[in-house]
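Hello Y.,

Per our agreement to keep a running log of every chain we model this quarter, I'm adding this entry. I've kept the format consistent with earlier entries: sequence first, then predicted structure.
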Amino acid sequence: NIPEGVLTIQANTFRECQSLGYPKLHDGIIEIGDGAFSESDFRTQEIELPKSLKKIGNNAFWLAGGRFRHADRTLMTSEEIKKLDLSNYKSPITAFETYKFPVALEEIGDLAFYQTFNGVENFVFYENLKKVGRNAFLFRGENNFTFLGNKPEFVDIENGSNNPLSSEGKIRIKKSSTGWIGKLPDLPIEY
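Predicted structure for the entry above:
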């Protein structure tokens, strides 16, 4: 367990740890440093991202085993999805395999979840998300990304770099969101 009072998990703290078990990340942690859990093995357990989390560093969970869940719930419930009023999409999201990130999250670094979330179909990001790093969510399969706030900065996308999101799927945004003009990740957008 990470001791209470620790606000930041430093870079490479658990890098390449085998049989990491169940690392408990208490509410109060605001940052996970670069490579903190990269190539770690906690495949048979789950790791909760604390509600207080604001920044996930570059390569933080790169090639890490395990499943992620938010401290409130791993997957969104049907009731939560209804409250978001996302029913107007051509292909509405469902509670099945929908992962919600912490509301406080502001920044996700380069390659943060590279090959980590295989099997999860939908991701929901709240209004506080401001920045998504290069190839942050690069994994196989069709994945859908729902942004409830204005467009975050997608690092280096204006320079034609790699897509920060997986190569298949779509982006869903609320009609009231702003900034979704110009260079965007190479995925279709639904309003």
